[in-house]
Amino acid sequence: MMEACDCVVLYNSAATAEKPGSREKSYPATTAREDVGAIAGSLAGAGYRPEVIAVGRVTADLIRRLLELAPRFAFNLCEEIDGDSGMEMAFAGLLELLGIPFTGSDSFALGLALDKFRVKQLLEAEGIPVPLGGICRPGSTSMFPPGMKFPVIVKPGREDASLGVNGDSVCATAEEVGRQVRYIHDVYRQEALIEEFLDGREFNVSVIGEEEPEVLAVSEIDFARLPANEPKIVSYRAKWDETSAQFGGTTPICPAAIPEGMKERIDSIALASYRAVGCRDYARVDMRTDASGAVYVLEVNPNPDLSPQAGFAGAARAAGFSYADIVLRISESAIARGDRFEPAIHAF
Ligand SMILES: Nc1ncnc2c1ncn2[C@@H]1O[C@H](COP(=O)(O)OP(=O)(O)O)[C@@H](O)[C@H]1O
Ligand SMILES: [Mg+2]
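Output (structure tokens, whole complex):
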């Protein structure tokens, strides 16, 4: 007989539905998930007995099963529920209600990080540099904060994975901004974020840990092979269409070649951002420099992609850790939380 599981790996099956009118199509790389099997394999290799559960809709059966399994911890890879990324925080909240310790950030940090403008305001209040920007909500026309200069980038206020970011996102005129804002309103049905375009280097900073977080490594996007007519951004195609010129022209290099002083500054900005948002276990902070080399935070990503070929695992390798090392470290953090806290009082 198979021994009972002691942990679960929870994931949402990738959404394949495209928003009507969207230029961001689904490519094989958007639908394949390589994190689930790799994480379950690492856990099994270390003697855990993981049970992998695909979460579609949240049903009474799912809740019953989780309560029956009563796992020591859940490896939480649910980024959305039924295609709705706003439900990522609600799912973490469900685990909190059920009293199941889980990996990654809590419901509050996941919800907060989804709102890029609020995160910018929070970081700014903490003295962390962010690009000057404003939001334009559907139905409103005021969009430009005083002092903002062209070119600007227009992106959705609450999306990830470069959804809504394409070759037209960098705008040089008010007319172009108007067109791109309408695109975000019409297709993504949410506020558009308008920011000064930072015309410098781009860094992804992977952070691991709970009370004493540390930077694993800084990765840089090399834009050298991007066609000259393409803006130097990591657009949706650059992230997901492996056959595109945009993908081939945005190569991550880890560790980035940066002078010691800049590395220290990037690390301290990353850790301050991680703490400000309340990230837990693992996260990635995206940054850019302006033409003068000053560093700014674009966004904070709690629970970033943990696939073996994605940036976080690459940063771990650069820091001398194996894939299994980071999976186990993140899992142990969740277990330790479970040991520390009383079970939640719930009515299930
Ligand atoms: N203010 C900005 N200046 C320059 N490039 C930007 C700016 N904001 C976003 N970008 C580009 O767009 C990409 C996606 O934006 P980001 O805010 O990281 O959203 P996502 O959650 O989709 O990753 C970034 O990786 C970067 O290349
Ligand atoms: Mg990003």
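The chain has three domains: 7-110, 132-196, 199-332.
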